């Protein structure tokens, strides 16, 4: 079976930047865009040009700065938005307009106060206008996760006929379960006339913690683009995390997928985004969290020290992280203690480790983590005794 390329669409600079307190200026956005290009993403969603003069400028400057990556600007299905986006993208070698409208009955009623027929008309008009301005047009069916599947299929068929090159099926509210999201994508693959002319894209939010699982389920069902952000930043509980998608695809070769992502750059870009957006990464975050390669319980430490793969499915060097950490707590065992002493230059005998271990437990019960200074004191005490 030949491998299928999954296009990585990064929206850190658009959906990610919507996180309260994460606003970026143009210089910061350009710097991050260049790093995203080095990382190997295929598409950078650079902003929402009509939303502010600053965002327009960012999309324009990113379009000038990057060389081999598609630059995308978001719009509503509104003429002025689309014209402004095309203007902001005029220097891009590979420009894409990302236009769309609500597709669930909830959005049609409460946001647009209109009918399904009118939504299809507006969507077709927006895509046609955008296609007159740029050759690559992505259509998003907002809240597709909660949309009626028969209507969603009609809408997607209409926008492909109008010229959409990519069709985005967002689970905007993070509502779907993986099998439900996959069923939606499968239905479109099997029922939409002309679907082979467009790439299907997954755009999943993390309100139930399922964004990555849903995106991968969508790809298995036939989607070939995944929209994601570094560190999973995004509205509310965030978006699908790029580093998780990249490593799921890398670790599960049986899926038959590949991406252009250079995984050894993931850790550095995670830290850069975190620092630039002033948004810390949670320590237990998959792939890039501080504890992603830390072992603290005795059973795990003993296994890991015998053979790393007993408790690690990823070598930290594969994602550009520091080497794995053996953290000493009251749950740690003798082998971890001996290992840490060895790193400090003390090769204690088994009997000496036994003596040290009892003293270590007293310190460990009083502290959250036993550090090198504590170990040095324990070693000195033993040598004095
Ligand atoms: O979550 C969403 O539906 C979006 C669209 C604008 C693509 O971010
Ligand atoms: Zn979104």
TrEMBL record:
Keyword ATP-binding: no
GO biological process, one term: L-leucine biosynthetic process
Broadest EC class assigned to this enzyme: transferase
Pathway(s) the chain acts in: Amino-acid biosynthesis; L-leucine biosynthesis; L-leucine from 3-methyl-2-oxobutanoate: step 1/4
SUPFAM superfamilies referenced in this protein's UniProt entry, alphabetically: Aldolase
Swiss-Prot/TrEMBL keywords: Acyltransferase, Amino-acid biosynthesis, Branched-chain amino acid biosynthesis, Leucine biosynthesis, Manganese, Transferase
Pyruvate carboxyltransferase domain span: 6-267
PROSITE patterns referenced in this protein's UniProt entry, alphabetically: AIPM_HOMOCIT_SYNTH_1, AIPM_HOMOCIT_SYNTH_2, PYR_CT
An MF annotation (GO) of this entry: 2-isopropylmalate synthase activity
Enzyme Commission number, as recorded: 2.3.3.13
One of the Pfam families matching this protein, by short name: HCS_D2
Recorded family membership: Belongs to the alpha-IPM synthase/homocitrate synthase family. LeuA type 1 subfamily.
Protein name, as recorded: 2-isopropylmalate synthase
Source organism per UniProt: Arachidicoccus soli
